[in-house]
Amino acid sequence: MKAVCICMGVHLPYNPKWYWPVEGFYGMPEMDRYFDRENIFSKFLKTSRQFLHLNDIIMESVEKGGRYSFDLSGPFLEQCRWDPELLESFHELQESGSVEFTGSCNYHSLSSLYPDLSWFQEEIRIYREIIRELLGVTPKTFVNTELLYTERAGCILAEASFGCLIAEGSRNLIKEYDPVSVYQNHLPTLLRHINLSEDLELRFLEKDSEGYHLIPKKFADWIKSMEGDVLTLYFNYTNLCVHHRNENTIADFIRNFPSALKIRGIEMLTPSEAVKKFSHSSLQTLGTEQTIRYGMHNAIGNNAQQIYMQELLRIGEELSELKGSKAYWKLKQIFGYLQQSEIFFSMNSGSIREGYERAVNYFSILSDFRRAVLEEAK
User: Fold this and answer.
1) Residues 6+ apart with CB under 8 A from 227
2) What is the predicted pLDDT for the residue at 93?
3) Pick from 106, 148, 268, 269: most CB atoms within 10 A?
4) What angle is formed at CA 73 by the lines to CA 361 and CA 249, rounded to 5 degrees?
5) For the chain, give me the number of helices (H) and strands (E)?
6) How far, in Å, CA of 135 to CA of 77, rounded?
7) Crossing angle for the helix pair 352-377 and 328-337, to the nearest 10 degrees
């Protein structure tokens, strides 16, 4: 292996509250009607301190030659407005010159699956404005919600002048092979190596796992033994926080990983650097398959998820008729957060009853929201 790209996703969703109108549906909705922002704020403050400390460790790794990319979700960036110190920490990482910040779907939605991709394009535009405002960057790489890939989205991203896409390296795309190249379709594409990413994200502290105890030397040896140009690792930053809370070994791993790779002749690159450095390989399945982290069946595989998406599409059309009205921008923001991927995934819970109960709750919210849209249109 010649190089490694490490991308860390940071996302804290606006989880919907359990909602049931006591006295019927009424009035113009506010964010607090559907989302428990007090609880969201409390959770953010606790997690932000952990992120701040982990950012300091990433900076130490950068000073030892590490190069990283961050995928900060739109909901998370909005929450960062509550903590200027954390925002400044990310800004310092950006100014180091060794950290790339990617583009994202602003509301962490599945809008790239909609028949009409205009909302997806709108989310791209909104996110670009927000990250330019908060961090002063214009992303060159794009990471769709939960590493979602569709060819239609690839077309839109190429037209939007992105130079790289990171997507899930699922089996239906790569068959029995490892994703170890830069792949070319509408734009250069890096595919996540699922097993090695999850070794860091999920199995780092599992004593029953094959790699326990995972140290930089051992992990770098695994990478060196692989054939290919570039290995792409993507994992949730929050899981590194969990590891760090339990043991300090993840901090030592992050600090020493760049040196372990360098000794073995392996570069750390940002995604934009990788797609420029290596030749691009053809992968025909990029033109025929869809993929998402945890599988398409978990995202839109059951009736509740599919009906919820159809309701979103209907409401989106009705909302578009309100452009120029006084309440449009407020309704548009709430509508964005009602599209978060967590809503879809939670309706496919391991417990059928829990998934059903959540679906009933979400449809109750949608019903009230649609009432407000229709009343505004009168």
Assistant:
1) 1, 180
2) 98
3) 106
4) 105
5) 17, 10
6) 10
7) 170
What pLDDT, on a 0 to 100 scale, did the predictor assign at position 212?
59
Alpha helices in 225-351 (DSSP H): 237-246, 249-263, 271-277, 296-300, 303-320, 328-337, 341-346
Residue 119, both tokens: 């909302």
Res. 130: pLDDT tops 70: yes
In tens, the pLDDT along 145-201 reads 999 999 999 999 999 999 999 999 999 999 989 999 999 989 999 999 999 999 988
- Nearest 5°: phi and psi at 71? -110, 95
d(CA 330, CA 341): 20
CA triple 208-211-213, angle to 5 deg: 80
The residue count of the chain comes to 378
CB 165 within 8 A of CB 187: yes
Percent of the chain with pLDDT over 70: 95
Contact 85, 45 (CB under 8 A): no
Say whether pLDDT at 125 is over 80.
yes
- Residue 135 CA to residue 94 CA, distance in Å, equals 8
Helix (H, G, I), strand (E, B) or coil at 314: helix
The span from the CA of 244 to the CA of 171, in Å, is: 31
- CA dist., res. 231 & res. 279, Å (int): 14
What pLDDT sits at residue 242?
76
Q: How far is CA 218 from CA 150, 196, 242, 324, in A?
A: 35, 12, 22, 59
Separation of alpha carbons 201 and 214, rounded Å: 12
Per-residue confidence band for 98, with pLDDT thresholds at 50, 70 and 90: very high
Question: Highest mean pLDDT: which of 13-22, 209-218, 274-283?
Answer: 274-283
Q: Which of 133, 54, 45 lies closest to 93 in space, CA to CA?
A: 54
Element (H, E) at 164: strand 164-168
